[in-house]
Fold this protein.
Amino acid sequence: MFLALREMRHSKARYSLIMVIMLLVSFLVLFVTGLARGLAYANISALENMPANYFVVQSDADHTFRRSQLGESELAAARAVAGEAKATPLGVQTSTITAADADVKADITFFAIDMAGMLAPEVTEGAGITNEVQGSAVVDSKLEESGVTIGSTISDQATGMSWTVSGFVKDSSYSHTPVVYINQLDWQAMKQGAVQSGSSDSTGNAPYNVIAIKVSSAQASEIAGQQQAVEVITQKQAISSVPGYAAEQNSLLMMIAFLFIIAAVVLAVFFYVITIQKTSQFGILKAMGTKMSYLAWSVVGQVLILSVASLALSLLLTFGMNMGLPDAMPFQLDGQTMILTSLLFIGMSLLGSLISVARVAKVDALEAIGRTGA
Protein backbone atom coordinates (compact mmCIF):
# COMPACT_ATOMS: atom_id res chain seq x y z
CA MET A 1 0.00 0.00 0.00
CA PHE A 2 3.01 2.30 0.60
CA LEU A 3 3.98 2.07 -3.05
CA ALA A 4 0.39 2.70 -4.19
CA LEU A 5 0.03 5.82 -2.04
CA ARG A 6 3.42 7.25 -3.07
CA GLU A 7 2.63 6.78 -6.74
CA MET A 8 -0.80 8.40 -6.40
CA ARG A 9 0.73 11.33 -4.54
CA HIS A 10 3.36 11.73 -7.27
CA SER A 11 0.87 11.56 -10.19
CA LYS A 12 -2.00 13.57 -8.75
CA ALA A 13 -3.41 14.76 -12.09
CA ARG A 14 -3.54 11.28 -13.60
CA TYR A 15 -5.28 9.63 -10.67
CA SER A 16 -7.57 12.62 -10.08
CA LEU A 17 -8.84 12.24 -13.64
CA ILE A 18 -9.48 8.53 -13.07
CA MET A 19 -11.32 9.30 -9.83
CA VAL A 20 -13.52 11.87 -11.61
CA ILE A 21 -14.47 9.25 -14.20
CA MET A 22 -15.23 6.73 -11.44
CA LEU A 23 -17.22 9.38 -9.60
CA LEU A 24 -19.41 10.06 -12.64
CA VAL A 25 -19.97 6.37 -13.36
CA SER A 26 -20.77 5.50 -9.73
CA PHE A 27 -23.13 8.50 -9.47
CA LEU A 28 -24.94 7.34 -12.60
CA VAL A 29 -25.22 3.80 -11.19
CA LEU A 30 -26.63 5.08 -7.88
CA PHE A 31 -29.02 7.52 -9.52
CA VAL A 32 -30.45 4.96 -11.96
CA THR A 33 -30.72 2.43 -9.11
CA GLY A 34 -32.62 4.95 -6.97
CA LEU A 35 -34.84 5.82 -9.92
CA ALA A 36 -35.59 2.14 -10.56
CA ARG A 37 -36.47 1.58 -6.90
CA GLY A 38 -38.58 4.73 -6.85
CA LEU A 39 -40.49 3.73 -9.97
CA ALA A 40 -41.06 0.26 -8.52
CA TYR A 41 -42.41 1.69 -5.27
CA ALA A 42 -44.63 4.16 -7.13
CA ASN A 43 -46.02 1.23 -9.09
CA ILE A 44 -46.79 -1.25 -6.31
CA SER A 45 -46.65 0.62 -2.98
CA ALA A 46 -50.27 -0.29 -2.18
CA LEU A 47 -49.44 -4.01 -2.41
CA GLU A 48 -46.00 -3.74 -0.83
CA ASN A 49 -47.43 -2.05 2.27
CA MET A 50 -50.19 -4.61 2.75
CA PRO A 51 -49.87 -6.92 5.78
CA ALA A 52 -51.03 -9.92 3.69
CA ASN A 53 -48.32 -12.34 2.53
CA TYR A 54 -50.48 -14.45 0.20
CA PHE A 55 -53.37 -13.82 -2.19
CA VAL A 56 -56.04 -16.18 -3.45
CA VAL A 57 -56.81 -15.68 -7.15
CA GLN A 58 -58.52 -17.61 -9.90
CA SER A 59 -56.24 -20.26 -11.36
CA ASP A 60 -56.70 -18.96 -14.92
CA ALA A 61 -56.15 -15.27 -14.06
CA ASP A 62 -52.38 -15.42 -14.68
CA HIS A 63 -51.81 -13.91 -11.21
CA THR A 64 -53.45 -10.65 -12.33
CA PHE A 65 -55.92 -9.22 -9.81
CA ARG A 66 -58.31 -7.62 -12.29
CA ARG A 67 -58.68 -10.86 -14.26
CA SER A 68 -59.65 -12.83 -11.17
CA GLN A 69 -63.22 -13.21 -9.91
CA LEU A 70 -64.05 -14.96 -6.65
CA GLY A 71 -67.23 -15.39 -4.65
CA GLU A 72 -68.44 -16.07 -1.15
CA SER A 73 -67.67 -19.80 -1.35
CA GLU A 74 -63.94 -19.15 -1.95
CA LEU A 75 -63.90 -16.57 0.87
CA ALA A 76 -65.54 -19.01 3.28
CA ALA A 77 -63.05 -21.75 2.36
CA ALA A 78 -60.10 -19.41 2.94
CA ARG A 79 -61.46 -18.23 6.28
CA ALA A 80 -62.02 -21.81 7.40
CA VAL A 81 -58.24 -22.31 7.27
CA ALA A 82 -56.81 -18.87 7.98
CA GLY A 83 -59.45 -17.52 10.33
CA GLU A 84 -61.85 -14.67 9.69
CA ALA A 85 -59.44 -11.93 10.75
CA LYS A 86 -56.64 -13.15 8.46
CA ALA A 87 -58.63 -13.62 5.25
CA THR A 88 -60.33 -10.60 3.76
CA PRO A 89 -61.75 -9.89 0.29
CA LEU A 90 -60.28 -7.26 -2.00
CA GLY A 91 -61.96 -5.70 -5.01
CA VAL A 92 -59.78 -4.01 -7.63
CA GLN A 93 -61.12 -1.76 -10.38
CA THR A 94 -59.24 0.75 -12.53
CA SER A 95 -61.26 3.80 -13.55
CA THR A 96 -61.22 7.55 -14.11
CA ILE A 97 -62.62 10.03 -11.61
CA THR A 98 -63.56 13.68 -11.76
CA ALA A 99 -63.71 16.23 -8.97
CA ALA A 100 -66.16 19.03 -9.62
CA ASP A 101 -64.70 21.53 -7.16
CA ALA A 102 -61.12 20.92 -8.38
CA ASP A 103 -61.97 20.57 -12.11
CA VAL A 104 -59.67 17.55 -12.26
CA LYS A 105 -59.80 14.24 -14.11
CA ALA A 106 -57.47 11.45 -12.96
CA ASP A 107 -56.88 7.76 -13.55
CA ILE A 108 -57.20 5.83 -10.29
CA THR A 109 -57.62 2.30 -8.96
CA PHE A 110 -60.47 1.47 -6.59
CA PHE A 111 -59.60 -0.86 -3.71
CA ALA A 112 -62.73 -2.21 -2.06
CA ILE A 113 -61.87 -3.56 1.38
CA ASP A 114 -63.26 -4.39 4.79
CA MET A 115 -62.65 -1.17 6.70
CA ALA A 116 -62.48 -3.13 9.96
CA GLY A 117 -60.10 -5.76 8.58
CA MET A 118 -56.35 -6.07 8.23
CA LEU A 119 -56.25 -4.17 4.91
CA ALA A 120 -57.78 -1.01 6.36
CA PRO A 121 -55.51 1.90 5.31
CA GLU A 122 -53.68 4.06 7.82
CA VAL A 123 -55.13 7.54 7.44
CA THR A 124 -52.50 10.29 7.70
CA GLU A 125 -54.86 13.25 7.28
CA GLY A 126 -58.58 13.54 7.88
CA ALA A 127 -60.71 10.60 9.07
CA GLY A 128 -61.25 7.01 8.05
CA ILE A 129 -64.49 5.44 6.91
CA THR A 130 -66.64 2.59 8.19
CA ASN A 131 -68.36 -0.38 6.60
CA GLU A 132 -71.86 0.89 7.39
CA VAL A 133 -71.96 4.25 5.58
CA GLN A 134 -71.88 4.60 1.80
CA GLY A 135 -70.56 7.52 -0.19
CA SER A 136 -67.22 8.14 1.58
CA ALA A 137 -63.69 7.30 0.44
CA VAL A 138 -60.09 7.51 1.57
CA VAL A 139 -57.68 8.42 -1.22
CA ASP A 140 -53.95 8.51 -1.86
CA SER A 141 -52.26 11.84 -1.12
CA LYS A 142 -51.13 12.16 -4.78
CA LEU A 143 -54.67 13.28 -5.59
CA GLU A 144 -54.17 16.17 -3.18
CA GLU A 145 -51.59 17.54 -5.63
CA SER A 146 -54.33 17.61 -8.29
CA GLY A 147 -56.56 19.81 -6.14
CA VAL A 148 -58.60 17.17 -4.31
CA THR A 149 -59.12 18.10 -0.66
CA ILE A 150 -60.93 16.66 2.33
CA GLY A 151 -64.61 17.16 1.64
CA SER A 152 -64.19 17.10 -2.14
CA THR A 153 -66.68 15.04 -4.11
CA ILE A 154 -65.15 12.64 -6.61
CA SER A 155 -67.22 10.87 -9.27
CA ASP A 156 -66.54 7.67 -11.19
CA GLN A 157 -66.99 8.24 -14.92
CA ALA A 158 -67.89 4.60 -15.61
CA THR A 159 -70.74 4.21 -13.11
CA GLY A 160 -71.63 7.79 -12.18
CA MET A 161 -71.22 7.01 -8.47
CA SER A 162 -69.85 9.72 -6.18
CA TRP A 163 -67.89 9.74 -2.93
CA THR A 164 -66.88 12.39 -0.43
CA VAL A 165 -63.18 12.37 0.41
CA SER A 166 -62.86 11.89 4.16
CA GLY A 167 -59.12 11.32 4.46
CA PHE A 168 -55.74 10.81 2.80
CA VAL A 169 -53.20 8.01 2.96
CA LYS A 170 -49.54 8.08 1.88
CA ASP A 171 -47.68 5.78 -0.51
CA SER A 172 -50.65 3.90 -1.87
CA SER A 173 -50.34 3.40 -5.63
CA TYR A 174 -51.25 0.54 -7.93
CA SER A 175 -49.92 0.37 -11.50
CA HIS A 176 -48.76 4.01 -11.21
CA THR A 177 -52.26 5.21 -10.31
CA PRO A 178 -53.44 6.57 -6.93
CA VAL A 179 -55.62 4.18 -4.92
CA VAL A 180 -59.10 5.17 -3.79
CA TYR A 181 -60.32 3.04 -0.87
CA ILE A 182 -64.05 2.34 -0.65
CA ASN A 183 -66.03 -0.02 1.57
CA GLN A 184 -67.78 -3.17 0.45
CA LEU A 185 -71.24 -1.59 0.33
CA ASP A 186 -70.08 0.86 -2.33
CA TRP A 187 -68.27 -1.95 -4.12
CA GLN A 188 -71.43 -4.05 -4.32
CA ALA A 189 -73.39 -1.05 -5.62
CA MET A 190 -70.69 -0.39 -8.21
CA LYS A 191 -70.67 -3.99 -9.44
CA GLN A 192 -74.46 -4.19 -9.56
CA GLY A 193 -74.54 -1.01 -11.64
CA ALA A 194 -71.92 -2.42 -13.99
CA VAL A 195 -73.92 -5.64 -14.44
CA GLN A 196 -77.10 -3.70 -15.22
CA SER A 197 -75.27 -1.57 -17.80
CA GLY A 198 -73.85 -4.69 -19.44
CA SER A 199 -70.20 -3.78 -18.84
CA SER A 200 -69.45 -6.67 -16.53
CA ASP A 201 -70.10 -10.38 -16.23
CA SER A 202 -73.78 -10.97 -16.88
CA THR A 203 -74.08 -13.39 -13.99
CA GLY A 204 -73.07 -10.84 -11.38
CA ASN A 205 -71.82 -13.68 -9.17
CA ALA A 206 -68.29 -12.43 -8.63
CA PRO A 207 -68.27 -9.82 -5.85
CA TYR A 208 -64.49 -9.84 -5.29
CA ASN A 209 -61.30 -10.07 -7.32
CA VAL A 210 -58.92 -11.62 -4.81
CA ILE A 211 -58.75 -12.71 -1.18
CA ALA A 212 -55.83 -11.36 0.86
CA ILE A 213 -54.62 -13.77 3.52
CA LYS A 214 -51.93 -13.74 6.19
CA VAL A 215 -51.00 -17.37 6.76
CA SER A 216 -48.10 -19.81 6.89
CA SER A 217 -46.90 -21.63 3.80
CA ALA A 218 -48.58 -24.83 5.00
CA GLN A 219 -51.92 -23.05 5.39
CA ALA A 220 -51.51 -21.47 1.95
CA SER A 221 -50.98 -24.92 0.43
CA GLU A 222 -54.05 -26.22 2.26
CA ILE A 223 -56.22 -23.39 0.90
CA ALA A 224 -54.92 -23.98 -2.64
CA GLY A 225 -55.61 -27.71 -2.37
CA GLN A 226 -59.23 -27.29 -1.28
CA GLN A 227 -60.47 -25.91 -4.61
CA GLN A 228 -59.25 -26.55 -8.13
CA ALA A 229 -60.43 -23.22 -9.50
CA VAL A 230 -58.19 -21.08 -7.26
CA GLU A 231 -54.48 -20.50 -6.84
CA VAL A 232 -52.59 -19.07 -3.89
CA ILE A 233 -49.74 -16.73 -4.85
CA THR A 234 -47.16 -14.93 -2.73
CA GLN A 235 -47.01 -11.19 -2.31
CA LYS A 236 -43.89 -11.14 -4.52
CA GLN A 237 -45.74 -12.97 -7.31
CA ALA A 238 -48.64 -10.57 -7.02
CA ILE A 239 -46.30 -7.59 -7.29
CA SER A 240 -44.54 -9.05 -10.34
CA SER A 241 -47.92 -9.45 -12.07
CA VAL A 242 -48.95 -5.81 -11.70
CA PRO A 243 -49.39 -4.49 -15.27
CA GLY A 244 -46.19 -2.91 -16.54
CA TYR A 245 -44.13 -3.68 -13.43
CA ALA A 246 -42.00 -6.53 -14.80
CA ALA A 247 -41.25 -4.83 -18.14
CA GLU A 248 -40.33 -1.56 -16.44
CA GLN A 249 -38.06 -3.14 -13.86
CA ASN A 250 -36.38 -5.51 -16.32
CA SER A 251 -35.48 -2.60 -18.60
CA LEU A 252 -34.02 -0.57 -15.74
CA LEU A 253 -32.22 -3.63 -14.35
CA MET A 254 -30.58 -4.19 -17.74
CA MET A 255 -29.43 -0.56 -17.78
CA ILE A 256 -27.93 -0.91 -14.30
CA ALA A 257 -26.19 -4.16 -15.23
CA PHE A 258 -24.63 -2.55 -18.31
CA LEU A 259 -23.49 0.41 -16.20
CA PHE A 260 -21.66 -1.99 -13.87
CA ILE A 261 -20.04 -3.71 -16.84
CA ILE A 262 -19.07 -0.39 -18.41
CA ALA A 263 -17.56 0.76 -15.11
CA ALA A 264 -15.46 -2.40 -14.86
CA VAL A 265 -14.29 -2.16 -18.49
CA VAL A 266 -13.40 1.55 -18.26
CA LEU A 267 -11.38 1.07 -15.08
CA ALA A 268 -9.71 -2.04 -16.45
CA VAL A 269 -8.62 -0.19 -19.59
CA PHE A 270 -7.32 2.83 -17.68
CA PHE A 271 -5.25 0.79 -15.24
CA TYR A 272 -4.07 -1.60 -17.95
CA VAL A 273 -2.66 1.32 -19.95
CA ILE A 274 -0.99 2.72 -16.83
CA THR A 275 0.45 -0.71 -16.05
CA ILE A 276 1.95 -0.99 -19.56
CA GLN A 277 3.55 2.43 -19.12
CA LYS A 278 5.13 1.22 -15.85
CA THR A 279 6.44 -2.09 -17.20
CA SER A 280 10.08 -1.11 -16.71
CA GLN A 281 9.48 0.06 -13.14
CA PHE A 282 7.78 -3.22 -12.27
CA GLY A 283 10.70 -5.08 -13.85
CA ILE A 284 13.21 -3.17 -11.72
CA LEU A 285 11.19 -3.84 -8.58
CA LYS A 286 11.07 -7.54 -9.43
CA ALA A 287 14.85 -7.57 -10.03
CA MET A 288 15.31 -5.99 -6.60
CA GLY A 289 13.42 -8.93 -5.07
CA THR A 290 10.01 -7.36 -4.58
CA LYS A 291 7.40 -10.07 -4.20
CA MET A 292 4.61 -10.39 -6.74
CA SER A 293 2.02 -10.28 -3.95
CA TYR A 294 3.28 -6.84 -2.93
CA LEU A 295 3.04 -5.53 -6.50
CA ALA A 296 -0.41 -7.05 -6.96
CA TRP A 297 -1.64 -5.48 -3.73
CA SER A 298 -0.23 -2.13 -4.91
CA VAL A 299 -2.34 -2.25 -8.09
CA VAL A 300 -5.46 -3.54 -6.32
CA GLY A 301 -4.95 -1.04 -3.49
CA GLN A 302 -4.98 1.87 -5.91
CA VAL A 303 -8.23 0.70 -7.42
CA LEU A 304 -9.74 0.13 -3.98
CA ILE A 305 -8.77 3.60 -2.72
CA LEU A 306 -10.06 5.33 -5.85
CA SER A 307 -13.33 3.37 -5.98
CA VAL A 308 -14.12 3.92 -2.29
CA ALA A 309 -13.26 7.64 -2.45
CA SER A 310 -15.25 8.22 -5.64
CA LEU A 311 -18.17 6.19 -4.26
CA ALA A 312 -18.27 8.27 -1.07
CA LEU A 313 -18.38 11.48 -3.10
CA SER A 314 -21.05 10.09 -5.43
CA LEU A 315 -23.21 9.13 -2.44
CA LEU A 316 -23.01 12.69 -1.14
CA LEU A 317 -23.82 13.99 -4.61
CA THR A 318 -26.76 11.59 -4.94
CA PHE A 319 -28.23 12.59 -1.56
CA GLY A 320 -27.76 16.26 -2.41
CA MET A 321 -29.53 15.86 -5.74
CA ASN A 322 -32.31 13.85 -4.10
CA MET A 323 -33.03 16.76 -1.77
CA GLY A 324 -33.42 19.05 -4.78
CA LEU A 325 -35.56 16.71 -6.89
CA PRO A 326 -39.27 17.54 -7.24
CA ASP A 327 -41.70 15.40 -5.27
CA ALA A 328 -43.25 14.17 -8.51
CA MET A 329 -40.04 12.37 -9.48
CA PRO A 330 -40.02 8.83 -8.03
CA PHE A 331 -36.61 8.36 -6.43
CA GLN A 332 -35.91 6.04 -3.52
CA LEU A 333 -32.55 4.82 -2.28
CA ASP A 334 -32.81 3.01 1.03
CA GLY A 335 -29.87 1.81 3.11
CA GLN A 336 -29.97 -1.80 1.97
CA THR A 337 -30.08 -0.90 -1.72
CA MET A 338 -27.32 1.65 -1.25
CA ILE A 339 -25.02 -0.83 0.50
CA LEU A 340 -25.66 -3.56 -2.08
CA THR A 341 -25.05 -1.18 -4.99
CA SER A 342 -21.86 0.17 -3.41
CA LEU A 343 -20.46 -3.32 -2.76
CA LEU A 344 -21.25 -4.38 -6.33
CA PHE A 345 -19.53 -1.28 -7.72
CA ILE A 346 -16.41 -1.88 -5.62
CA GLY A 347 -16.45 -5.56 -6.55
CA MET A 348 -16.66 -4.81 -10.28
CA SER A 349 -13.84 -2.27 -9.94
CA LEU A 350 -11.60 -4.81 -8.22
CA LEU A 351 -12.52 -7.41 -10.81
CA GLY A 352 -11.38 -5.05 -13.57
CA SER A 353 -8.06 -4.50 -11.79
CA LEU A 354 -7.19 -8.20 -12.08
CA ILE A 355 -6.32 -7.67 -15.75
CA SER A 356 -3.58 -5.25 -14.68
CA VAL A 357 -2.40 -7.71 -12.01
CA ALA A 358 -2.12 -10.41 -14.68
CA ARG A 359 -0.05 -8.03 -16.81
CA VAL A 360 2.30 -7.30 -13.90
CA ALA A 361 2.72 -11.01 -13.29
CA LYS A 362 3.93 -11.49 -16.88
CA VAL A 363 6.59 -8.78 -16.64
CA ASP A 364 10.08 -10.29 -17.05
CA ALA A 365 12.63 -8.47 -14.90
CA LEU A 366 15.63 -8.99 -17.19
CA GLU A 367 13.70 -7.98 -20.29
CA ALA A 368 12.31 -4.88 -18.59
CA ILE A 369 15.77 -3.83 -17.34
CA GLY A 370 17.27 -4.42 -20.75
CA ARG A 371 14.59 -2.30 -22.40
CA THR A 372 15.27 0.46 -19.87
CA GLY A 373 18.99 0.37 -20.50
CA ALA A 374 18.50 0.51 -24.27
The mean pLDDT is 84. Residues 12-48 form the longest helix (37 residues). The chain is about 55% helix and 15% strand.
